[in-house]
Amino acid sequence: MRPAAGTCRNLAISLHHVPTNPFLLHRRLIHHGPDTIDELLDRHVVKNEKTRDDEEADLLTRQRLTSTRREALSLYRDILRATRFFVWADSRGVLWRDVLRENARKEFEAARFERDPEVVTRLLIGGRDAVQSALDKLAQKQREQIDKEKGDRNRR
What is the C-alpha to C-alpha distance for residues 71 and 132, in angstroms, rounded to an integer? Predict the structure, then answer.
């Protein structure tokens, strides 16, 4: 019985022997197998093959998200460009340009994580309409101001 205990002790020592070089230890641990259950399942469970329809649906979803993202960025840039024309100050002395830009930023941040395509489209259309309406009103007021100044010059 004595020799079997000694053999077991030697076997245990040889199994638990840790290399002194940390690089070898790290390399040895990497190749022992998966670190997590997910890795184990990924390696050994048969995955469903994607069908052509799934790939096309993924592509359409990515294109839709990309196009709405592009459209949102385009709208934001248009808002920044349009606010250049609002150079007068409000009652607090703050330029309207800065007020409009701050409000636009808040609106975009509020809708930043919206994923419903219908809601995103509605927001984009509403934003485009608002920018166009503001520019039309600004142009109309400037025309009225020019006409008023021409009328004042003609009376003199």
Answer: 15
Cα separation, 101 vs 79, in Å, equals 8
Distance CA 134, CA 82 (A): 9
pLDDT in tens, 14-53: 545 545 555 544 444 445 565 677 776 676 666 666 667 7
Q: What value, to the nearest 5°, has the Cα angle with vertex 80 and ends 76 and 86? A: 140
Task: Give the torsion sign (CA, 20, 26, 32, 35).
Answer: positive
- Beta-sheet strands, E only, within 55-119: none
Instruction: Report the candidate in 39, 134, 37, 11 with the shortest Cα–Cα distance to residue 78.
Output: 134
Question: What's the DSSP call for residue 21?
Answer: -
